[in-house]
Amino acid sequence: MNKIVSSKRKKSKKIILEKFLKKNMNWIILLIMVLFLSLVTDSFLTARNLSNLIRQSTIVGIIAVGMTGVILLGGVDLSVGSIVGLAAVTVTLLMEKGLNEWISIILTLIFVGGLIGYWNGYWISRYKMEPFIVTLGMMTIARGLALTISKNSSIPVKNENFTKIAGSYISIKWSIILLSICLLYILIEVTYYAIKKREVLKNKSYIKNTLLKIFGILLLFLIFIMYKGIPNPVAIFSVIIIISIFILNNTKFGRDIYAAGGNREAARLSGIDIDKVHMKVFIITSVLAAFSGIILASRLNGASPSLGNMMELDAITAVAIGGTSLSGGIGGTFGTLLGIFIISILNNGMSLLGLPESYQLIIKGLIITMAVWGDIVSKNKKYHK
Q1: In 3D, which of 81, 92, 80 has the Cα closest to residue 154?
Q2: What pLDDT sits at residue 216?
Q3: Which residues cross the membrane (predicted)?
Q4: Cβ atoms within 10 Å of 101's Cβ, excluding its own
């Protein structure tokens, strides 16, 4: 009898441990990476390095926000990296021709981001072509266009107002205001769910996630005030993240994305216009990729047709690591945000350690493989249960 009780306790402890590791694996990985890089390098934990790391992560981060929607639908967009390069080249060329920086940005978002997104969405929704094939073709087309219009050469930016978009920092005063807005948003979210679902305060998972959000925001704020303030790209990225979380969690469009990705036929029968959802998501993703290219051109004070190369790999990896199922229907922006931090720290760490780019690509490829494997194993366990 005692042996049976002891065996049940061991199994119970094993199940609890498995659940804990599954829920918190990304946080554990993040902590291990930070501790390791802190021990083997002298510069990782400096305010300057951490501030620059987070600022640089916004480029891929903005792309990954759009990619989250695509992957939630069970698709993938391979064209985003090439869109970054084409948008960067386009906006710099327009300014070189004498156009105002804001007009150049708007035209680039419309005619690069909007049109490419519409093109991808049209073939996918109208002719039911696989997103992988359509966006693979667009990846090649967009890169070819970038090479053609730039004449395969770098284009410098001479517009100081444009370079300030990504090169400037928000003052400490406005940083505090932005911090207050973020904390206020969390308070409103908690209040909303507390009213809507009265049992929310008993939900340990929800409380844990809320506390992690608050801790993360305060930690980031501390890093930034120790070095110049909040970079403009980080402020822009924060707004995009908040909007994305709100749309996915609180709007019909967000619910339609989850429904279409989870079970397309059931979603269609319930009256959801699947084609329209696909069209919107691919347009948004392309516009965000174009916007990312504009910010990158601003940060680098110029553009070249090779910009954005392999960024789709980082974006997909961040989304997969963040827990969004590659078969669709499960995941979200908050998980992607965590995935972005992991990928950014990984990239930063590999650079600090002096690893060749070839090794970095191998490591990223292995990470994607493991993320997909984990997704398959998780689904198989649910299926067998």
Answers
A1: 92
A2: 78
A3: 53-73, 102-120, 132-150, 170-194, 206-227, 233-249, 277-298, 318-346, 358-376
A4: 20
Closest by CA to 212, choosing from 371, 343, 24, is: 24
From the list 78, 125, 138, the residue with the least C-alpha distance to 279 is: 125
Mean pLDDT of 150-171: 92
pLDDT at 3 over 80: no
What predicted TM-score, i.e. pTM, was given to this entire model? 0.90
Torsion of CA 312, 318, 323, 329, to 10 degrees: -30
Q: Among the residues of 73-171, which ranges form H helices?
A: 80-96, 101-108, 115-126, 131-149, 160-167
Supply the pLDDT for residue 360: 86
Q: What is the pLDDT of residue 12?
A: 66
Amino acid at 249: N
Can you tell me the distance from the alpha carbon of 68 to that of 316, in angstroms, rounded to the nearest whole number?
8
* pLDDT tens digits along 34-90: 899 999 988 898 888 988 999 999 999 999 999 999 999 999 999 999 999 999 999
Question: Could you give the CA distance from residue 50 to residue 62 in angstroms, rounded to a whole number?
Answer: 18
Q: Find out whether 238 and 66 touch, Cβ atoms under 8 Å.
A: no
Find the range with the poorest average confidence among 24-28, 99-103, 282-286: 24-28
Phi-psi region of 229 (alpha: psi -120 to 50; beta: other; left: phi over 0): left
CB 276 within 8 A of CB 25: no
By the 10 Å C-beta count (0-12 exposed, 13-18 middle, 19+ buried), 303 is classed as: buried
DSSP run (H or E) holding 176: helix 172-196
Q: Which of 55, 106, 115 is nearest to 83 (CA)?
A: 115
Reference 83, options 350, 293, 324; nearest CA is 293
Residue 7 burial (CB count, 10 A): 10
70 to 8, 161, 332: CA distances (angstroms): 43, 33, 11
Tens digits of per-residue pLDDT, 215-249? Answer: 777 787 778 877 878 899 998 998 999 899 999 98
Task: Count other Cβ atoms within 10 Å, centred on residue 293.
Answer: 35
For residue 342, pLDDT beyond 80? yes
Rounded to a whole number of angstroms, the CA Rg of the chain reads 22
- Which residues make Cβ contacts (< 8 Å) with residue 28, sequence separation at least 6? 21
Task: Please give the Cα distance from 187 to 189 (Å, whole number).
Answer: 5
